[in-house]
Amino acid sequence: MAVFVALGAFLMTLAGGWTAQRVTDRRHLVLGLAGGLMLGVVGLDLLPEALHAAGGDVFGVPAALLLFVAGFLLAHLVERLLAVLPGPLDSAGAEGIPIAAHGVDQHVHRSPEVGLAAGAAMVGHSAMDGVAIGAAFQVGEGMAAAVAVAVIAHDFADGFNTYTITSLYGNARRKAVTMLVADAAAPVLGASSTLAFTIPEQLLGGYLGLFGGVLLYLAAAEILPEAHHVHPARSTLLCTVVGTAFIWLLVGLAG
What we know:
Strand 1 and strand 2 form a beta hairpin. Strands 1-2 form a two-stranded antiparallel ribbon. The chain has a two-stranded antiparallel sheet with strand order 3-4. The two termini are 21 Å apart. The protein has 8 helices and 4 strands. The protein has helices at 2-22, 27-53, 63-82, 112-139, 141-168, 173-193, 201-229, 234-254, and strands spanning 57-58, 61-62, 96-101, 104-109. The chain has one domain. Helix content is 76%, strand content 6%. By secondary structure, it is mainly α. The longest helix has 29 residues, at 201-229.
């Protein structure tokens, strides 16, 4: 049954990625919405669950929050290690993202490796979504139903964000689609794996805290600033608010 539910997550992930691909002419709106979805998933879904499941404090601070900060710093470190230094590029370059600095138009070259690393992190998270579904079925049908609704609903956002993040850093469409398909298949594999073992709740909570920090960094430091670079429109801000409110609605319905 857990694997069957994970198939629903598979379809929702593909639907999210397909939506991201179809609105390339409104890229700033896509990025604004993606940032809102990511903020909502972190603040309203991942972090509360991590605080509940991760266990006690470490030197006066909840373990989940320490891992949350560690995830944020890890994402920042990885980006700094992989990103290419800014420099002027041909304005027609596909990987050049225009910005205004000191009154001069420049372009920032985004390292494709950063996008692939971020996409891989999303795939890992989706695998853990599948594990969460399987673990919930081990607890009982009531818990399984709540987790299944939450996972399937926010996997639309996962698919949307996986494609957006991967392509944002200059990766070709083929690579972004490949990462999207991997992200869609990950919950099925994760759910299937729980047929052979039981995951400790504390370990799952710690993972959610760590990944929440990574996701928040991507939203705050990359996705949202990029959304407002060329089109600092009110509609972009509205999309961000709508994305966050949508996750709030899903969490409320799942609860």
